[in-house]
Design goal:
heterodimer; A: mainly alpha; 6 helices; 71% helix; globular; B: mainly alpha
Amino acid sequence: MELHNFTPVPALVGGLMIGTAAALVYAMNGRIAGISGIAARLLRSVPGDTAWRAMFLVGMVGGGALLFHLRPALAVHEMQTGWWGLVGAGLLVGLGTRLGGGCTSGHGVCGIPRGSTRSFVATLTFMAFGFATVFVLRHLIGGEV
Amino acid sequence: MRATLFVLPGALFGAGLAVSGMVDPAKVVGFLDLAGAWDPSLAFVMVGAMASFWFLTRLLRGRTAPFLGGSFPPPPSGSPDRRLLLGSALFGIGWGRAGLCPGPAITNLAHLELPILAFVGAMLAGMFAAQRLFGADR
């Protein structure tokens, strides 16, 4: 198999930073740092359970902004689809993560290490559908996407 | 306010996404494209994140409560149901289409670009709709 653009060291370092951040949240207030849940629960705010979510998201944007500024090479983000594709995909991601109760961070980063069967099955499912979607778009109907 | 402290793990999370390269949809799709020029980087991100979360939360085992109040959640229980499978499948389709999941999409708001805003706006609308139509998740 041919490997392209493989960057194992930054990937591992970035992963350690992400896992450490999620563990910090757990240590601070016992919550699972699933980004879809943190964002979605801002939309139906419960008194006393909103400010930390907003602050965490502000930090996520700020941490990204800082790194993009310091290391412009990290700011590369090549969109894979146009407006309608982005809006359709965004709706699916929003709807799907709320029905499924989590995303890559809540189910993958936190749920699997906690030994959650639901998170394990959810992660296998969204990975499988991610693989299948890219296969269909790139190799069955798309050609060059 | 204690809530302000959560800027710090948020910033570490966002910086980690940037360092890992997962903020680039092309890199995410490169991982999902098994039949093409495969880039296994995302798997290394997940292994690093899961291992560090596992190890660090293990260190907290002796504690009865988190440092800033609240309580630790009970051990995970319950088995997968249709809602979990359907939701995760829909999420996977959207993730494969755009190469964006919620974390990287939010961190990419730092670019202040309309396509990212459109994705995040649609994502929040989808979350809102799901909560309205099907009730909050557990």
